[in-house]
Fold these 4 entries.
Entry 1:
Amino acid sequence: MFYGWRLYSGDNSWLLAIGINMQHILGLVFANVFTFRAFKRSKNQEWKFWFTLNLGLFIYLLANLFWMVFLVQRESLILSDTAYSLWLTAYALFLSSLINWLKWAKPNTFKGVYLFNIIVFMITAASISLHFLIEPIITLSNSSMWKIITMLAFPIIDLSLLFLSVITYYLIHKDTDKRVMLLIVSGIFLHTMADSYAVYSGALEQYTRGGLSDFLWLSSIWLIGLAGYYMTADRDEPSKSFEKTYEQMTGILPYISTVVLMLLVLESYQWDLNTLILGLIIIVVMIIARQLHILKENNQLIDEYRHLAYHDPLTGLSNRESFEEQMNSEMENNENSLTALLLIDLDRFKVVNDTLGHQAGDYILVKISEYLQQILGSDTPLFRLGGDEFTIILSDATVEKCERVAGTILETFQKPFAIYDHEIIVTASMGISMYPDHGETFEKLFRFADAAMYLAKEGGKNGYRFYNDDLNQKMLRRMRIESDLRKALEEEQFEVYYQPKVELKTKKIIGMEALLRWQHPELGWISPAEFIPIAEENGQIISIGEWVLKTACLQSKRWQHDGLSPTNISVNVSVRQFQQGTLLTLVKEALQEAELVPSLLEIEVTESIMQNTKESTEIIRGLRDLGVQISIDDFGTGYSSLYIINQLPIDTIKLDKTFIDDMKSVDQQAMVRTIVDLGMNMKLKVVAEGIETDYQLNKLIEAKCEYGQGYLFSKAVRAEEIENLLQEAPEPDTQLALSH
């Protein structure tokens, strides 16, 4: 339309001005309508921005209408003073609208790169404005002082608009719709460019209607109007190309402006200091200063990364990488003396994290690192490997020196930590290996210290052990067991044995406990006490436990098919199976597969399942809802026994073997009677484990304990032996004579 009207007008300047002004009026009407609608729909403090923007556009429209009247009445191209003043007022309102938007966006601080880009761009713009606009107006214009002042007002306000629009440009991401604000910023930017070109041409008395300035003015008005349109549209969105352009221009805009300034300096350079040269000098100094600052920051980051690479971020101690390097250095430089490696692992530290939270755990780790540094001093290297593991390197070591350091550490750890109104005592287990006696490489020494540490844990924790040849054999056996566990199930090396549970007075078999046995093809029979903890650690207990459960259920059903009376069968379930979250589904599958009545299955759990009370209770209630019986194994050995039997829907408590072993003690007999009475009062069955002598049996009967199991009646035997016993079983009042 714009260029079509130019062609239609030909050489008639008055007709050209009428048509262009009419196009401006149409664009302003469009912009006024939709910015007003945006003002009506805006919320919070955003309304001030749209209100002042709409008011500015309305006054801009009035100015063009006044000029249209002036053109029609006088048929002159001279600008109306009224229109000129209204345009200036509209610009001031545009400036106010951007200030209101910035107040609404509430930018507290700019990122350094944004602030640098803004300053560079504005120095460039100010230099160009001063050189090409303000100076020519002052020096070349023959107009009156008032005319000069009003002419200067436009570039000054435009420069301010440009400054605020650039800031807004870098803050668009804070707006709810950055494409809308991008249209407004683009419109204001084009408007300032048009003004600058028009003022410069006017000062040189070269301005003509229908040129670039008029086209940019018209484009800027429509862009602002489109912003109002998209702000009020329910579905339509501006083109994504606007957003893409924004992302591309954000980083390069200040550099483009700097290149433009350099080209203008080269074009206008006359061996004198002018505003263009001054602006370029300032920008060059800023760029050099910024690069120096970046180099300094990069050096600081490199130092920080280097520190992080070799230090633990929580405690500030040296980390595993630093430990390995220093240990290798010690071995290279101290070939004629012993160097000891002490590996420290906190006992049951996971319980602290689970009960008090990881923040409390982190606090304790920091305090422990401080304790260790105080004990060792600054000359002894101390490292945190991660988690709750620490290591110490002792130079010129002796056995006595290692024992003294280890003893001091264990003694210091007896001091409780006060946190969250709790006093917590954290103990530690330590393993010690020495170079070159135990190994000549870092890997061996660390592995041997780790093996010694595990032996200290198995020995009751809160202690230390030195590595030795016997320990090496134990470690190798443990590694062999851990490795072969993975294929034992596939190669059918496991077998389920069954130990009868009997009624103590009649010796009648009332149930069976399924117990896992492993016959290794080379190592022979391996005790469950040896391989079960390893299976718990590496997670193999999940698949093994599933196999035991299904095998026991199928065996119970097989005995029924063979004509034997239905017999209750107990299966032990580990904590890891509870934590897996699939135990309930697994039990359902095992019962369905064996077609076994749920009441004939008893699940035995230990008190340790209460590490997660909520989940464990839900699972146990789910098992009870199926009809499965629940038994607490090793009852009386945990700290939460009374709490458990009060909270959980259980049927049986199994009295731990440790109570039975010392039945000759009067105090122990009293303890057993108390537990039995407790079970009877709560309507629970009490089963005594590990009965081996007639004396123990009689004392249990005196204590009114009804059920038990142990070698006195039978050890755990294969399924076919149990089947023979059940087939040959005497009447209930006849004692069973089962071999040991």
Entry 2:
Amino acid sequence: MTAYEDLDGTGGAAESGNAGARHYRAFLSYSHVDERFARRLHRWLESYRIPARLVGTATASGTVPRQLTPIFRDRAELPAASSLDQEVRQALSRSDVLLVLCSPAARNSRWVDAEIELFRSLHPGRPVIAALLEGEPQDSFPASLIGPDAAGITHEPIAADFRTDHDGPKLARLKIVAGLTGIALDQIIQRDAQRQLRRVIAITLLTVLLTLSMALMLIFALRAQKEAEHQRQQAEGLIEFMLTDLRQRLEGVGRLDVLQSVNEQALDYYADQSDLNALPADSLERRARILHAMGEDDHKRGDRAGAIAKFEEAHRVTATLLAADPRDPSRIFAHAQSEFWLGYVDFIGKRFDRALPRFLAYRALAEHLVRLVPENQAYWRELGYAQGNICTIAVTLKGPEDQLGECGNALKTMQRVARMVPEDRSLDVDIANRHAWMADALRVQGRDVEALQERSRQAAIVQRLVTEDPKNATYQQDWMLARYSNAQLLYSLGEKSRAIQLREEARQDVARLIAGDPQNNDWRVWQEKLAAPFGN
């Protein structure tokens, strides 16, 4: 109940006939042009909470409530079917304060002017608050607001100036609160500022807590990520060992069956990854190497389709990685392997027209590597292999001189690598192999005596390797092939008895190899060749 309630001014009959009518904290009068502003202000006023320390304070306007509700906004609360004049009169008669939104549109509105006149006639002593939205007061205040009332008395309205270069929206709203409650403006400003400060402090504390929580979560996530990365590196380190040291040892004892299991275990690791695209580049490169190894073993077992499928998948991966960074040596190297293996399958299948472009692409990548990193002996070694591959096709097809010349280039490149790393005894196998292909190139040119000299150099190297490591299946295979090739050369030069003896020794060698690894298809192919008469 406010101090103004005994000043209804509607007369006894009106009061008795509207005993249950709603009481309003204020009546909001405005022009239809200012509808949007009025709606926002109405919503703010009804949702505004008086600072707790001021609630219950006694003022000239009555006891200060917790909220400024209800506030009548005529265009929002009048039923469409009701009489406008009757509803407005009823609302004005039961409103403590008249709040007028002043603007040029409001000054020109006869309805705003009429509502001011009606309110003052009903409640001569009740306050009228003028909220200036835009324009100057003389252009925006309705005439009834600043003119004399029916008794000839001119009332000065309480003003709240929303213009940004005057009070501004925030202070203007607080002035309206002061006018509606009777509280001094400085008290409202002070208490509201304190409340805002408490709210800011609370929000800041909450933000700090959330930030700390997120920081802790980030730390845990980073630790989990680091642990996952550590586990990935450990798993892929094991795979790297399986692809290098373990693989070489298993190849040395001719155990393709164990190699297959090792390769499949490594490939299963990547099959468990949910998204291969999310794997780091080094993981994808390692996966391509696994595919190369598995394809090689499939080919040795005679599974040509399986080998091609794995080599093509590896080629797709390495091509994508190389396209993303064409100057990365590791990616160039990986793609070079893909080109080689696809060319190798075609070469063994005697599809030389398809194998040669692969080998040429392999050589181009190897040449790119040695240009980028000329001090890297592994890349020079790769170039020697690539040159040797072109040499093999030239020998097989009795090709042109420039391609046959790659046989000599391959030998020179491998000898250069041996000078770069004299302690690397694995190069002995590569150099022996280059001597063998040089011998074949000389045979194509009809230079059998020179070819026999190259074969003798090859045989001397391989015999030494077998003597040093008699259980190494790779060395045994090379020794078998060296004796067989020497047998062919000796036969062509007329030394038939010596040729037959060497061929028989080679047959015994390949029989022992097959007994140790029956699944090796390459050795069975050589067994068939050794069974054929000389000249075939």
Entry 3:
Amino acid sequence: MASITDALNEALRHHREGALGHAEVIYRRILAVAPAEGDALNLLAVLCLQTGRAEEALDLAGQATRVNPAAAAFHITRADAAAALGRPALEADCLEQALALNPPAPQAAGWQRRRGRALAAMGDAPAAVRALKAAAALAPDDIDILDDLAVTLTRAGLTDEAETAFAEVLRRQPGHAGATRNLVSLWLNQAGDYLSLSEGGAPQGSSGHRATTAATLARRAVELDPGRREGWARLGLALMALNQPEPAADALRRALALPGMADETAEILINLGFLETRLGHFDAAAAALDQAEAQDPGRAEVLNHRGVLLHAQGRLPEAADVLTRAAATAPDDHRPLTNLATVLKDLGDDDGAEALYLKALALAPGEPAVHWQRSLARLLAGDLAMGWQEYEWRHQTGQMPPPDPSLTVLPEWRGPDPTAMAGTRLLVHAEQGHGDTLQFARYAALLAGAASRLGLARVGLIVQPALARLMALSLPGVTVVPPGATVSAADWDARVPLMSLPHRLGTTLETIPAQCPYLTPPPVEGWRARLAQAVPAGMRAVGLVWGGDPRPDDPVSALIDRRRSVPLAVLAPLAAADDVRFISLQKGTPAAQAATAPFPLLDWTGELRDFADTAALVACLDLVITVDTAVAHLAGALGRPVWVLSRTDGCWRWLRDRADSPWYPTLRLYRQESWGDWSATARQLAIDLVAKPIP
């Protein structure tokens, strides 16, 4: 026995000094004499591992554990061999046997950590979490164990626990590279999950909440690791989903400034090109898409967004060509088809547009954007029944704010129901712009007039503050809720969005409720006296609005506003009507142009506090000439003559190729002949104004 002990000591000395060949010869001589010598088996197994012979090591370590199953070190050597062979299940089993021998806490902690990692490699995340929690309990100050636990909690889907564990690592060791990287990855993965859930047909409230959560997570990620491109890119996507294009574009620009793979760069550039288009930065959009094309030639997304850009620039034939190529490149993608359909709609091809919308819906039947775009096309074409039905998708697009939370406590009224109980107290709530409210307020009066037939006990209306006084004066039988008043389920039984009423009541082109006037101004005597003094006898008083609401917080509306608004100088031909005195009705930023008007212009707008004041003045005018904005609807609803300048891609409510409007008998449309050019329209206005064709 002593000779074997001496031989083992000599072999171990050679082993430690790196003379592995000498050590191996001695180990094998010992085993030739004493094949059940456990230490020799184990040490030779260790040596085999060191020299890349893992299979032999596993066999030798297995023999050692059979000779002495109470030797924890033998089980660990066998675990090492299993790990070297990529057999995590066997490694975990060997570690479990070693741990069953009650090793000291520091050893047990390390072995539990290894066992947890092996179980994680097997895909058994719950068991891995249990092992790593046991390791953390044995060594509570070991940051690396806590980091491993956090990673494994993430894999197990226990993200809240993982976030807490990562945060604890960083509290103990700020700047810990692994924890920083993994916590950022956790947040970004969560953000990606929320973003994917926010797409498709989820209700906007849910979708908006998910995108908000994604943005919060991505912001945390970029704050913790501002040098990681993925964080800024994910933040940009989240802000895109929240319809915040300016900060989204800024995030994507910051992402581009950081290193990354070419395919990542192309993706970021494509999204940036889309955002720059929405912001009206057409040159920047083109530059981003050019770079994306260089990174990934022929990519369908680049073609799609370039088509959107060309459309926004009014280059419709070019847009149609590019989008046709995009649709051919990605035949299973509904987006190029939808965008191409919208371009065809603006080119006047209603049938072609409808065919493509239906094709897009076959690919993505629950995609709100397709239904929304189709609704506008159907309404424009005069197919009001289908248009109103599709218009109900508007609140799922993410492009419109959801109803005030105080309203959502009320169930939504779906229209007349003969089986429903009578006595419903119905609250109608305005949405979108002032012009939309002015146009569709007629439906609140219609409901009140037919309340008993519709089973309604009371009809209420919530409108924008600037419209509240006018509506209270104008709609008998309708309770106009004062601005800021609390909405309570004790007072109302159901609610309905104002612009859902045409659908709920089945309005068609033939049944539009066009009885005008349906608005009543406050007393007008003061304005009549003012006009009698300011406008000589025999001259006509013509109100003028040349700009809409720029809405800088809503880039989509801002783009449309730039197309519908007219620089006041363009209307200089109206000066040819020498028997007209123009009165400004222009409010907001464009009103500053009045100082350099190309003709005499009376301006009392400083006295117009709300739409009731404006209505009183409009009621005294001979004619109103306006771009497509709220005053057009105000004048029409008051039954006053109104001429409306309508952009080439005119609003759906004015229908296709009509000079009149079934919504307002006194309204006349002047359509822009070419995108962005109002000169011909202004000349025609002047010709007609001189000819005095005021109805």
Entry 4:
Amino acid sequence: MLVVGGGINGLGVYRELALQGLRVLLVERNDFCSGCSAAPSRMIHGGLRYLENGEFGLVKESLAERDALLRNAPHLVRPLPTTIPLSSVFSGMLNAAAGFLGQSGKPARRGALPVKIGLTLYDLVTRRRRALPPHKFRKGRATHAKWPALSAEVRCSASYHDAWISYPERLGLELVLDTARMAPESLALNYAEITRDGDQFRLTDRETGDTLPVAARLVVNAAGAWLDEVRRDLGDAAQNDTPMVSGTKGSHLILDNPALHAALGGHMIFFENSDGRVCIIFPYLGKVLAGSTDIRVETPTRTACTEPERRYILEAVGRVFPDLPLAEQDIVFSYSGIRPLPQSNHAFTGRISRGHFTHRIDGVVPQICMVGGKWTTFRAFAEQTTDVVLAELGHKRVAHTGTLPIGGGRNFPGSAALAQELRQRFDISEERARRMAETYGSLANDVLAFCAARADDQLLASSGTLTAAEIAWMTAQERALHLSDVVLRRSDLAITGQISTELIDGIADAMGRALEWTAQQRAAEIEALRQELHRYHGVSPQVLDQRSTQRRTECALAARPA
């Protein structure tokens, strides 16, 4: 089996296929989870708003998968109390009817009654195996007592629970590492590329240029937004130019605004912007995540949050919390990705289904295309795709993943209990123990044992709790090959606004020793990362330098005698 694409859908189906006893090769041309899978809203949710599109099956599936991730990856997926502020009662009652009738325009503003109906259905789906508390409504006075900074226009509110994911890219990586342990005859490669070579394929290592022939009985095309490009390159026999994927761009901001963080009261605020687009604000790793946009795009490419999008998101937050000061300077990081949605002619992008399906393409080597999907349902989509593959090959299913723990979710006692255990076993600081527990889950024991055996388990300058030994772990065990792999996907250094010039230099030194970089390679890696942070995440070289200066000043003040 050949799987093309190392986003979350590709990694999910790779694990699923490998556990059935098939020999599977996954090929990702960049790093694992470096495309759209690195740019989600970081919610694991049932999709409350999908109800008004009539997608009851998708909501039921999403809720089941949400609860499965809470069980299987509790170190990364956690409950998220969510509140909907409401300013009307009856508005939006015809939204669902319009969706059933195929109307593609913007829905009417949602009032309390349709939200009540939706949340009742939401609770009804999970009534037998409820993992989270049922919803509740608050009247205006109680709402403003709990969230005093909310707009005065809010007349009542509805609260329910979904979930959030702290490190989505790490969950994808853990699928790779789990599969390597449980099905060693299969292989997942990052920074590799597959091309057509006659009736079969050729694999190219993008780091070295080395090539190898590859023979496969079947291809799973899990290229996401690039699915149409890949299916043609790998031999769509019909040479069909009709696209299967219709992309929309979603951008998000990470804000360092303590007043806003406090105003949220630990809840996500799930609200409707003036244009009908549903937006979110929630506490994320000590900062605030706000989003998102939903802009149709014609050609898939790597993308960034633009100035108009930043204004759109900040203005949306300002409408919900009008008296809180918000400024561009609060943005410590931004990110954007293209959602690989099924092809649709809906005028309002919010009407486009977030569902998924497979499509088979005939050829000398048939392709099974994975169309659509979202983070929450990756396992279910992988399972369904695998069933299609097994039927094609005449192979019986021998393993199920619905209750299979993921990575550090195995034997995870909870972050607090694990952190205490790590402090006692490895004699490390409380801060480091907490971060290791929340980042690696139960795998933190393996990481710290690796670090403790090395002489370079020393803190990097300005890093807080990161050591050179941990960087060596990421290169030796987690397939990190470039600075961006560590800074953007195997740590929270960039997304939480910690990354600085000084810290980049320290990480480059550690990676350079581990990977035997030359001085020229080290300099090129640093420049590439600085440009990537500036171009795609709104973090300029000047900001990186300012953070280094600020950190050195803080350290000097802390060291000064009382």
